[in-house]
Amino acid sequence: MVEFRNEDLSGSVFDDVNLSGALLHNVLLTDATIRGAWAERLRLDGGFGQLVVNGVDVMPLLNAELARQHPEYALLEPDDSDGYREIWPVLEAQWATTVARASSLSEELLHERVDGEWSFIETLRHMLFVTDAWLRRAVLGEPSPYDRLDLRHDEMPSLEGVPHDPDARPSLAEVLRLREERVTIVRDFFAGLTDEQLAGETTVTGPGYPEAGTYTVQRCLRAVIDEEWWHHRFAERDLTELERR
Q1: What is the pTM of this model?
Q2: In the chain, how many domains are there?
């Protein structure tokens, strides 16, 4: 098997090649073009602004179908503070059901990865990181809010002050205790969020993630909401496989 890892292949041309069974993971495909392709099944998972298939932008169709399957999907881009207060309890309830489902499995399975994706416990560790980075550091101004069990993105380069211990194997109970602390912080913040705050900007300083700079509050809070929803879906998907095992 030929593997390309941590390489810049932008501008490359793949002509008359067989990519059957290929895995493209953590790839940037901005303005990429695929022509003359044949596939009985092609699976795409990721974030797409525009996805054109045979001349048709299928993103509106995809978004409509996601909203049909998941009614809360339409709430994931709130424009005002009330919108955040509306979506957050929905996300909390979804995760509570999923945690209860996961709790029926052995901890060994909850540390197991499906198709190379994060395990259930690793996913919860990443959610700790999301709250710490995008709410506590970026919006609330805590310079270094991370816990040693926070799990950043695998592709993220090493950053001063950001913990990274992918080999840690904490118990589900330990991670859930930290998770409940973060959920309470988010819940309390959204309870007091105003439209004026939401329309403002926040300046991040010092080493860490997100990196120093100025961000809109909306961008930071959308990151929290998006990550919660998508990783919940991933967790549900992988639990189905773990239960089968």
Answers
A1: 0.86
A2: 1
